[in-house]
Write a structure and sequence with these properties.
With 168 residues, the protein is of the alpha+beta class. Helices cover 36% and strands 27% of the residues. The chain has one domain: Trna Endonuclease, Chain: A, domain 1 (3-Layer(aba) Sandwich), CATH 3.40.1350.10. The protein has a six-stranded mixed β-sheet, with helices on both faces. A hairpin with a 2-residue loop joins strand 2 and strand 3. The longest helix has 21 residues. The chain starts with 5 loop residues before the first helix and ends with a helix. The N terminus is likely disordered.
Length: 168
């Protein structure tokens, strides 16, 4: 069985996240979310269009507080490469946090039949990255286990309650 490449793995995780946000919204009042269009959406309309850089994959508002969520996934065994978060994405997550909202990086380690995922606030991301040894750019899975908010699976969705109910 072939290993799913980065782009397809990422799209599957984004779809999982969309379902998870939808599920959270169905059981919580005062919640709204939106999937922000990405490059593939633009080129599907017209291959000559130039993509506008989006701040994140999703925007959500819960109880009046805005959240940006950027989804990242990998099949790498050694950990998650922090360079996968693009500078404009990092800047957007920082900006929403500085404005009183929350910026999140959702990271999934895709392993057949045993995916793991974590939510990392942009502030924690910066602290963890600053603490990496010289020349290391990856967060080991054990570091995420110890420091990040684990996302547990309930059926086909990730439980997002710890994120929206104060899990900073």
């Amino acid at each position: 069985m072939p290993i799913v490449g980065g782009s397809l793995t990422g799209k599957a995780f984004e779809e999982d996240t969309r379902r998870s946000l939808q599920s959270f919204g169905a059981s919580h009042d005062n919640f709204w979310f939106m999937r922000l269009s990405d490059y593939r959406s633009w080129i599907a309309a017209n291959k000559k269009l130039i993509n506008v850089k989006q701040p994140a994959d999703f925007m959500a508002i819960y109880r009046g507080v805005p959240h940006f969520i950027e989804c990242k996934s990998t099949v790498r065994d050694m950990g998650w490469d922090t360079n996968f978060l693009k500078p404009h994405q990092h800047d957007s997550l920082c900006e929403i946090t500085e404005a009183g909202g929350h910026g999140w990086v959702f990271i999934m380690h895709k392993v057949p039949y045993n995916n793991s995922a974590w939510a990392v606030s942009i502030d924690l991301f910066d602290r963890l990255k600053a603490g990496l040894p010289p020349r290391r750019v990856s967060f080991r899975w054990e570091l995420l286990d110890a420091e990040a908010i684990p996302l547990s699976r309930t059926g086909r969705v990730w439980d997002l309650a710890p994120i929206f109910n104060g899990g900073i």
